[in-house]
Amino acid sequence: MEKITYDGMRNFIIERELTDSVALSLHPDSFDDLVMDYLDINGNQIERPFEILGIEILQDNTGNVPKNLVQVLDMVG
């Protein structure tokens, strides 16, 4: 995936038929890019937790997720 955008993330979720049993983790730079795009589209308003189509979007703080890639995390215990 190139630079991560709101539309790109929506398509990623829809194409993979993801449900709220997962969360998506992004590299901090990619997370920032997505948040900025989201704010532009939604009039500078953002929900907490940050979700797109009911899927929580998290910032990776472990250094494990490369820039411009998405890690799918299983949220079911």
From TrEMBL:
Domain of life: Bacteria
UniProt protein name: Uncharacterized protein
